[in-house]
TrEMBL record:
Family matches, as Gene3D superfamilies: 3.40.50.880
Keyword Metal-binding: no
Alphabetized Pfam families for the sequence: DJ-1_PfpI
All copies of domain DJ-1/PfpI, residue ranges: 6-172
Stored InterPro entries: Class_I_gatase-like, DJ-1/PfpI, Prot/Nucl_acid_deglycase
Lineage of source species: Bacteria, Bacillati, Actinomycetota, Actinomycetes, Propionibacteriales
Lineage: superkingdom: Bacteria
Protein name according to UniProt: Glutamine amidotransferase
Cellular component GO terms, alphabetical: cytoplasm
Amino acid sequence: MLSMKTAYVGVYETWADWEIGYLLVELRTGRFTGEQWNVVTVGETTDPVTTMGGLRIVPDMVLADVEPEDGDLFVLAGSAQWDEGGGEAFAKTAQRFLEAGVPVAAICGATAGLARAGVLDDRRHTSAVKEYLLATGYQGGDNYVDERAVVDGDLITAGPDSPVQFARAAMQRLGLASDEKLDAYEGVFHRADPSAYPALVG
């Protein structure tokens, strides 16, 4: 039997729970992909953190113990820390994952953290708006794409208004579903299109 793949999820104070909720549910349950993943929460310490929605999370492990070769995806959500100039350790870990050829998925404020770390300078990416990333002083403005979600090699990025597209882009990059099923997924969860449901569950 094949061992389950692992998604490491960075968790920190004011972690924006809704932004990556769609993605985590599809990875953990495999309800539309047929493939269940381990979802492992990672904090700078094992001290509990409280999400923006008020949920208390105790990290499964510490960031210092995370090795790219042990995982198949590294996920980063937005939080107040990114806009306060924090999150450097998580951005450095994302860089290590990308250098090792392991996908990284970052949404909302996490894209600003990657921008500050230079991760976006040479990769196509998106975020809330281009000006948000330009304020970090990064050099990647020419690679900004005004789309809901963008995949460039092993990097998946999205803005805060696009959690469904973020999940879709990550599943596409990971090869978890066909384009037809992913179209249906976005149809059901973004457009509330009942005609897409049969293709999603079929």
